[in-house]
Automatic annotation (TrEMBL):
<dbReference type="GO" id="GO:0051087">
    <property type="term" value="F:protein-folding chaperone binding"/>
</dbReference>
<dbReference type="InterPro" id="IPR008978">
    <property type="entry name" value="HSP20-like_chaperone"/>
</dbReference>
<dbReference type="GO" id="GO:0006457">
    <property type="term" value="P:protein folding"/>
</dbReference>
<feature type="domain" description="CS">
    <location>
        <begin position="5"/>
        <end position="104"/>
    </location>
</feature>
<feature type="compositionally biased region" description="Acidic residues">
    <location>
        <begin position="176"/>
        <end position="201"/>
    </location>
</feature>
<dbReference type="GO" id="GO:0051879">
    <property type="term" value="F:Hsp90 protein binding"/>
</dbReference>
<dbReference type="GO" id="GO:0005829">
    <property type="term" value="C:cytosol"/>
</dbReference>
<feature type="region of interest" description="Disordered">
    <location>
        <begin position="147"/>
        <end position="210"/>
    </location>
</feature>
<dbReference type="Pfam" id="PF04969">
    <property type="entry name" value="CS"/>
</dbReference>
<protein>
    <recommendedName>
        <fullName>CS domain-containing protein</fullName>
    </recommendedName>
</protein>
<comment type="similarity">
    <text>Belongs to the p23/wos2 family.</text>
</comment>
<dbReference type="InterPro" id="IPR045250">
    <property type="entry name" value="p23-like"/>
</dbReference>
<dbReference type="GO" id="GO:0051131">
    <property type="term" value="P:chaperone-mediated protein complex assembly"/>
</dbReference>
<dbReference type="InterPro" id="IPR007052">
    <property type="entry name" value="CS_dom"/>
</dbReference>
<dbReference type="GO" id="GO:0005634">
    <property type="term" value="C:nucleus"/>
</dbReference>
Length: 210
């Protein structure tokens, strides 16, 4: 493991619902390519997560800690490991129609956190948005939820701490690399209103061009 530890790029988007828990979640992507399960650890808790991983191709170690704006239900959240990233669907604990104003509890902007424009929809356009396979777990090869993972964590201690992906295997990874977020995509996006979109703030409504 190299002496220098970098912060990975983190992309996020969200959906909300006051009545349906399955439609009340956060999309989160931690972009670390070629990180084998044996070199990846994720500690997911109701208030946040910590991630550590090592990229074989980049010969670099990564780490990040996030404290969420509000609590999530880790038992109903989903995790998927691809060749380019770690993808999560985090179930918001509180059923609420309004979007979270930001991902993190601290309003201070951080350079590594960006809006995932491929998954983002405006709050008032959620009903028209297409259903996402990852959110519904369709086509994911029966990927377990956090509750099911507890039986595969071996000696990991307390509150889903220290999930070791070497225990989870690599099922369902083939063919998913094409869907992973390209690191340069956000840099090529035209600017919207301010720079909030690049640093984790919920973006202002995007006007549709007719």
């Amino acid at each position: 493991m190299s002496a220098t530890v970098s912060t990975p790029e983190v992309l996020w988007a969200q959906r909300s619902s006051a009545t349906e828990a399955a439609k009340n979640f956060i999309y989160l992507t931690i972009s670390v390519p070629d990180c084998p399960p044996s070199a990846l650890k994720l500690d997911l808790k109701p208030t946040g997560l910590s991630f550590q991983g090592h990229s074989d191709s980049l010969k670099r170690s990564y780490a990040v800690e996030l404290e969420f704006f509000a609590e999530i239900d880790e038992k109903e959240s989903k995790i998927h490991h691809t060749p380019k990233s770690v993808e999560l669907v985090l179930r918001k604990k509180e059923l609420k129609e309004e979007f979270w104003p930001r991902l993190l509890k601290d309003s201070k902007k951080v350079h590594f956190l960006k809006t995932d424009f491929d998954k983002w929809v405006d709050e008032d356009e959620q009903d028209e948005a297409p259903e996402d396979d990852m959110a519904n777990m369709g086509g994911m090869g029966g990927m377990p939820g956090m509750g099911d993972m507890s039986s595969m964590m071996g000696g990991a201690g307390g509150d889903f701490g220290g999930i070791d992906f070497s225990k989870l295997g690599g099922a369902g990874m083939e063919g998913l690399g094409e869907d992973a977020e390209d690191d340069d995509d956000d840099e090529e996006m035209p600017g919207l209103d301010g720079e909030d979109e690049e640093e984790g703030e919920a973006p202002a409504k995007i006007q549709e061009i007719k």
